[in-house]
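Hello Y.,

Per our agreement to keep a running log of every chain we model this quarter, I'm adding this entry. I've kept the format consistent with earlier entries: sequence first, then predicted structure.
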Amino acid sequence: MKRDTPIDVRDALKIRRRLYINVPRTFPDNSLPWVIARDLLTLELDGKQVIPIVVDGSVIGPPRRTVEHCAYLSFSHFHRDRYQFVFILDSVPLGSKTKTEFLLDQLSFLSERPLYLCCARGQRDKGWE
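Predicted structure for the entry above:
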């Protein structure tokens, strides 16, 4: 979804399953993923409460460093019919095909229809949009 006009993340998640946010390297604050997560706490999608989960994408990798392990959260405790996980991936190494494929497989495994957004600092989108 390339646009000249900015769109709110909340609105974008209603029409897209995945989003790519390119954060300039010179952006002075590392808390953007957490700010987005906090904003999403009051959002409902398709009648389900959104549960935003911020994960450091740079530490995820096969075979043991799964999304669930790196999020320090067991997803089995949630009723998937009542909640919609939104994975906010910070610092994803888009240059690593192996890590990227592992990450996408993990997200599909954790949710039937995963919603996620990728916050990358100065990296080009490699198929996330």
